[in-house]
Amino acid sequence: MSTRFVATMIVALCLPVAAVSAGTVTPVGAEQCAAMKAHHVLNAGAPVGCERLAVVRFSYLDFDGRTHDDGAVVALDAVVPYVERIFATLYERHFPIAKAQPMDDFEGDDARAMEADNTSSFNHRTVAGSERLSLHAYGAAIDLNPIENPYLTRNSVTVTVAPPQGIAFLNRREDRPGKPERAGLAEAVVGVFSDNGFLYWGGDWDDPIDYQHFDIGRSLAQRLAALPPDQARLAFASAVSAYRECIARNSDKLPGKRRQTCLTAPRN
């Protein structure tokens, strides 16, 4: 059995017993760090280095119902126990994932990863179409099933869909008369992500609309990156607890209204 990363052990104390999954968390070692640099996933000037990153490995079901034991994403040390719990919960709920491999396999190219329908986290890059650093560069964002959950930009007359295969999923209804049931849509698991600190979903945005994207918020990501690791883990655990407590206090509201009420941090 693999030795769990010490961050999991520390922050797991803040999680309910049922939240501990069968996945594994390991620190990014020297060999993997060198590979990430060689494959343009970690570049000079990154806001976090390999010493602050860990690999979450997990099982997942594909769209044919087959189990895969090779799921892996790289994320910030402070959030990895919650990332582990997210994917354990998706597996328990039979939520399908097309593929989940670190961005090394795609040379850090976000477009290639999206076209492969790859679920991922850490990638030192900017926000598409800008010079602003993406929250993926902190290991504090997750992209889920990019084909089923595409990225949309628009101007006055056209909408651009990335990846292009995502055009089949512009109608976001899961159940449509005469059509096969949809699976893998992010709407079904927004609550799973928000309950584990990934409060902000790109499907809530106006332009762009990024159905695949979940993150913890820019101000919190920057704070965690600046803190020593142990303090960062405790700070994120505290943020998650505060959100869960807010949800509990607003239990009389509809789920969507509860979430809206409790989103108090900046979006990204």
Automatic annotation (TrEMBL):
Signal peptide: 1-22
Spans traversing the lipid bilayer: none
Keyword Signal: yes
Keywords: Signal
Xref: InterPro entries: Peptidase_M15C, Zn_M74/Hedgehog-like
Record keyword Metal-binding present: no
Organism domain of life: Bacteria
Residue intervals of the Peptidase M15C domain: 129-215
Name this polypeptide is given: M15 family metallopeptidase
